[in-house]
Amino acid sequence: MNNDIESVLLDEAEIASIVKDLGKKISEDYKDKNLLLVCVLKGSVCFMADLMRAIDIPCHIDFVSSKSYGSTTVSNNAPDIKAKFTYEDISQFDILLVEDIFDSGRTLQEMTKLIRAVGPRSLACCSLLDKPDRRDKNVTMELDYVGKQIPNAFVVGYGLDFNEKYRNLPYVGILKECVYR
C-alpha cells in the first residue's frame, strides 16, 4: 500500500496534534451541552475514534452512512445517505456531525438537511480535512470545525479510501495517479 502513495500529506504526529486541538475546542464549546457525535461512515471512523477520546466532556455517539464516490475519484451528484439514529428523541441533543473530508460539499449539505429535519437542539459540522478547491458552487454551508485545509489531490489513509483500500494507513497520503486512472 505504501508504494501507491505519492507523498504523505499529514503524518501521524500532525494528525494527533490536529485531533487534540479540535477535541479541546469542542470540549470548551460544548461544556454545558448534551453532545452527540455523529460519525459519517465509513471514512470518518478513525477520526471519530480519536476525536471522541480527545474530548474531555461527556458525549454520546451515533453513526450515519453515506456513499458518494463509488469506484471513482470524483464525487457523484446524488450521495446515498442512510441516517437512522439509535436515539428516539434527537431533540435533546446538540449534534456534531463528524466527517473525514469536506470536498464537493454536496454530501454534507444533504446530510445536514436530513438531520435538521429530525429536530436536534443544535447541529454543527466538523471535518478533519477541507478541500475548498473542489467545492460545488451550489454548496452554501460552512464547517464549524476544520482540522486542515488541503490541496486538490486525491487522498487516502486514516479512514479515507479508494475502492475500500488504504483506510488502515496511519497517515493521510496523496494517492499516485497511476493507481486510480
Write the layout of secondary structure elements.
Elements: E1 5-10, H1 12-29, E2 35-41, H2 45-54, E3 60-67, E4 80-82, E5 94-102, H3 106-117, E6 122-130, E7 145-149, E8 155-156, E9 172-175, H4 177-180
Parallel strand pairs: 2-3, 2-5, 5-6, 6-7
Antiparallel strand pairs: 1-9, 3-4, 8-9
Q: Alpha-carbon distance between the termini?
A: 16 Å
List the helices and strands in order: EHEHEEEHEEEEH
List unreliable stretches of 5+ residues. Answer: none
Q: For this entry, what is the oligomeric state of its chains?
A: single chain
Proportion of beta-strand residues: 25-35%
Structure write-up:
The protein has 181 residues and is α/β, with parallel strands linked by helices. Helix content is 24%, strand content 29%. It contains four helices and nine strands. It has helices at 12-29, 45-54, 106-117, 177-180, and strands at 5-10, 35-41, 60-67, 80-82, 94-102, 122-130, 145-149, 155-156, 172-175. It has a six-stranded mixed sheet, with helices on both faces. Strands 1-9-8 form a three-stranded antiparallel sheet. Strand 2 (35-41), helix 2 (45-54) and strand 3 (60-67) form a beta-alpha-beta unit. The longest helix is centred in the N-terminal third of the chain and has 18 residues, at 12-29. The radius of gyration is 16 Å and the shape is globular. The mean pLDDT is 90.
In short:
The chain has four helices and nine strands; from the N terminus they run E-H-E-H-E-E-E-H-E-E-E-E-H. The mean pLDDT is 90.
